[in-house]
């Protein structure tokens, strides 16, 4: 499996393939797990050639400790990808390769999708995501690009990016892959103790109960209930719980028929920040 570290090499490699082959892109920050593998396998099944990018993008981190502690293990990632017979190209550039001396995010107008939840609590996060993803689209020029619903708000931002920048790529959403206890798979789970990783199934169980309540209770009542659940827990600190429609991501005030809603959550378990979400209707 080819490992490519520079844009120039990648360009050469992609140009050596016939242009009528379908090209898929799976952007990741590495420390691969079964959630990533599901994206890669879907990409393999729908394209002739797949590029998996592995790049811990500094401009999307608002917290330097989080960036420093982000799990990284390129050789293990390569071993995991090596199992696929199809041609998967790994693109793992250095920070200098992607950003010259000016490591700053571009600024985008995401029509306020970036003003809530992850955007509210992670300053400039989505400008950083937009900056790297736009660059990856420009370098790889994929037909299809695969993103997980675990980062549902990010998926909405990417759809907006593609629309506003007029980028010719199909964005393919992929369902959330979970551990046995319901915890959404995430590279940051590696930073949890074994005990905490088991206990963290609590986050998904809370979302499931919120979903059950959605039929009969108001968003305000459900939010109150979730807050109280977390106040009773010493192991977790709730950062936000929000119910929003999936188009605007505006917090739900009054339910509207035919609109789709999701519940979104961010929680600290020890000093590890975890996010999750669930479809409510
Ligand atoms: N459990 C999962 N199910 C489905 N998709 C996932 C899952 N985890 C990550 N992804 C998707 O994989 C892609 C790369 O994500 P990334 O490398 O940031 O991993 P991650 O597990 O989300 O890490 P972290 O949340 O700790 O940053 C994103 O599109 C993300 O939504
Ligand atoms: C899309 C992405 C690879 C951009 O760095 C990242 O935000 C992620 O892994 O979800
Ligand atoms: N998958 C989300 C990327 C981040 O937390 O920065």
TrEMBL record:
Q: Name one GO molecular function term.
A: ATP binding
EC code: 6.3.2.1
List positions binding ATP.
29-36, 148-151, 177, 185-188
Kindly report the protein's main subcellular placement as a broad class: cytoplasm
Signal peptide per UniProt:
none
EC class, as a word, reads ligase
Q: Name one GO cellular component term.
A: cytosol
Domain of life, source organism: Bacteria
- Where does this polypeptide localize? Cytoplasm
Q: Does the keyword Nucleotide-binding apply?
A: yes
The catalysed reaction is:
(R)-pantoate + beta-alanine + ATP = (R)-pantothenate + AMP + diphosphate + H(+)
| Entry binding sites for (R)-pantoate | 60, 154
Q: What residues make up the catalytic site?
A: 36 (proton donor)
What does the entry list as the binding residues for beta-alanine?
60
BP GO terms, sorted: pantothenate biosynthetic process
What keywords appear on the UniProt entry? ATP-binding, Cytoplasm, Ligase, Nucleotide-binding, Pantothenate biosynthesis
Pathway(s) annotated for this protein in UniProt: Cofactor biosynthesis; (R)-pantothenate biosynthesis; (R)-pantothenate from (R)-pantoate and beta-alanine: step 1/1
Q: Which SUPFAM superfamilies match?
A: Nucleotidylyl transferase (SSF52374)
What is its biological role? Answer: Catalyzes the condensation of pantoate with beta-alanine in an ATP-dependent reaction via a pantoyl-adenylate intermediate.
| Assembly | Homodimer.
What family name appears in the similarity comment? Belongs to the pantothenate synthetase family.
Other remarks in the entry:
The reaction proceeds by a bi uni uni bi ping pong mechanism.
Instruction: Tell me the protein's name.
Output: Pantothenate synthetase
Protein's gene: panC
């Amino acid at each position: 499996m080819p490992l490519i570290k520079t844009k120039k090499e990648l360009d050469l490699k992609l140009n050596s393939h016939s242009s009528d082959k379908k090209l898929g892109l799976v952007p990741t920050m590495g420390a691969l797990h079964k959630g990533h593998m599901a994206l890669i396998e879907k990409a393999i099944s729908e394209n002739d050639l797949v590029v998996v990018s592995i790049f811990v993008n500094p401009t999307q981190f608002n917290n330097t400790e989080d960036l420093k502690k982000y799990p990284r293990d390129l050789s293990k990632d390569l071993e995991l990808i090596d199992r696929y017979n199809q041609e998967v190209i790994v693109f793992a550039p250095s920070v200098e390769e992607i950003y010259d001396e000016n490591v700053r995010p571009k600024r985008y107008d995401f029509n306020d999708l970036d003003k809530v939840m992850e955007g509210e609590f992670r300053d400039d996060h989505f400008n950083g995501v937009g900056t790297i993803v736009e660059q990856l689209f420009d370098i790889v020029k994929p037909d299809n690009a695969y993103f997980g619903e675990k980062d549902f708000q990010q998926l909405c931002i990417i759809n907006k990016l593609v629309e506003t920048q007029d980028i010719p790529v199909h964005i393919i959403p992929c369902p959330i892959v979970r551990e046995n206890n319901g915890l959404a798979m995430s590279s940051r789970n590696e930073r949890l103790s074994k005990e905490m990783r088991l206990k963290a199934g609590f986050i998904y169980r809370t979302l499931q109960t919120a979903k059950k309540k959605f039929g009969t209770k108001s968003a305000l009542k459900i939010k109150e209930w979730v807050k109280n659940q977390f106040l009773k827990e010493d192991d977790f600190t709730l950062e936000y719980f929000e119910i929003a429609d999936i188009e605007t991501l505006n917090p739900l005030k009054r339910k509207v028929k035919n609109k789709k809603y999701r519940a979104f959550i961010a929680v600290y378990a020890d000093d590890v920040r975890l996010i999750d979400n669930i479809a409510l209707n």
